[in-house]
């Protein structure tokens, strides 16, 4: 099993309407650039894999890992030369979600702007659908 990449935050999107796309997940230019940067030092990996795990105070939490291959039931999203694989368990929870990468003075993290989320915990790491 691969090591986790970085911390990720989940945000419920209610005031902003995301445009439906054909891809299960869309990446912002910032997320694309960060994934390219992370993979540059790992030539044996072909992309990153997004999954969900049951944990946290609100139910589910996203995971990000480097991956060397596409799993049999993974959904593949290719955008601007970056490959993101979505585990089967996470596919329905990610429909219409935008993946962003945000840096500020105190932190840097991937942020999932998900219109399907009904609630998040106070720390922003877990959610429920």
UniProtKB/TrEMBL annotation:
Instruction: Give every Core domain span.
Output: 25-125
Which superkingdom heads the taxonomic lineage of this protein's source?
Eukaryota
Task: Enumerate the GO terms in the molecular function aspect.
Answer: 2 iron, 2 sulfur cluster binding
Q: Which GO terms describe its biological process?
A: iron-sulfur cluster assembly; protein maturation
Which Pfam families is this protein grouped with? Fe-S_biosyn
Q: Which InterPro entries match?
A: ATAP, ATAP_core_dom, Fe-S_cluster_asmbl/transfer, FeS_cluster_insertion_CS, HesB-like_dom_sf
GO CC annotations?
cytoplasm; mitochondrial [4Fe-4S] assembly complex; mitochondrion
The record's annotation in PROSITE patterns points to: HESB
Parts of the chain that traverse the membrane: none
Q: Which family does it belong to?
A: Belongs to the HesB/IscA family.
Could you describe the subunit structure of this protein? Interacts with CRY2, but not with CRY1 (in vitro).
PANTHER family recorded: IRON-SULFUR CLUSTER ASSEMBLY 1 HOMOLOG, MITOCHONDRIAL (PTHR10072:SF41), IRON-SULFUR CLUSTER ASSEMBLY PROTEIN (PTHR10072)
What's the stated role of this polypeptide?
Involved in the maturation of mitochondrial 4Fe-4S proteins functioning late in the iron-sulfur cluster assembly pathway. Probably involved in the binding of an intermediate of Fe/S cluster assembly.
UniProt protein name = Iron-sulfur cluster assembly 1 homolog, mitochondrial
Q: Top-down, what is the taxonomic lineage of the species of origin?
A: Eukaryota, Metazoa, Chordata, Craniata, Vertebrata
The gene behind this protein is ISCA1
